[in-house]
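Example 3.2
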Amino acid sequence: MNTLEELFLEYFKHRYGDPDVMSPEKKTGIELDFYSGAAAAMMAPETHGKELVIDALDGHAARITHDLANQLTGAIMKPERTIPQGFMQDARGALWPTETIKEIDRARDDLVREIVAKARNQSAALGKFKAEVFGDIAAFVELSAEKYGAQMGGIKGNITLMSFDGRYKIQRAIADNLVFDERLQVAKTLIDQCIHAWGAGARVEIMALVNDAFNVDKEGKINTGRILSLRRLNITDPQWQQAMTAIGESLQVAGTRSYIRVYERVGETDRYQQINLDIAGV
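Structure, written as C-alpha cells:
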C-alpha cells in the first residue's frame, strides 16, 4: 500500500495532470482547491461515507479510477458497516427489524436520505465548478502575462474580469486567514493593567472599545478587525504601546481562503447584482 501522501499525489495527477510541468500560478491555484478538499476529507473521515469523502476531495470522481478511489478512502477512514437486509440501524448502532419501525420514522429516514443525496450531487457540482473556474482564471492570467513577457510568481491578490460589454463581472478574491497566537492574551493583560492604572481617569469610550474588541461571537471567535482597530487609538502610554506591539506580533497567517464572485449588471445602471452560489442566498 502506498503512503497517503503518495496516494494524494497520484490522485492529483489523475484529476489535474502532472504538477511538475505546470506554471507556478496554475499549480498554486489548483493546489488551493485540491488540498482544501483533501483537508476537509481528513477532518472527520469516520463520519463520512466513501462517496462524500470523494466529493470533498474532488467533486468529479468519475475522472479517477475506482481502485484509486477505494485506496484513498480506505486509507483515511474505517470500512462502513454492512446493514443486513430487512434491518435499519439507529443512532447508537443498534439494528432493528424494519417492520418494527413506525411508518412515519421510515418515511422521515427516506426523506432525509433523499435530500442528502441531492445535496451531495450539488456539492460535487459546486466543487467541480470551483476547480474549473480557478483553473480557467489562472490560465487566463498566465496567458495575459505572456503577452507582455511577464512571469507570474503566484496567485495571491484579487482579480476582476469583465465581459466586453460590461454586463458581467467575475471577481477572484484570495485572502490570508489571520489568527492570533497566545501573545493576544498577554496584550489583554497589559491593556487591563493600563485601564486599572488610569483609574477614574480612564475614558469610558476606550473601555467600551476594549471590551467590544475582546468579546467573542456565537462561535467563540474573536473579531480580528476589532482587535486591530485598537492599534489606531492615539494613546501614548508606554504600557499601552507595549500591548499594541504584542497584538501586532501575535497576528499569524493560518492559511489562505479563495473566493469566486459572479456579478450581472442591473439593467442600464452602474450597479451589479451578485449571482448567488450560496444556498442561503438563492
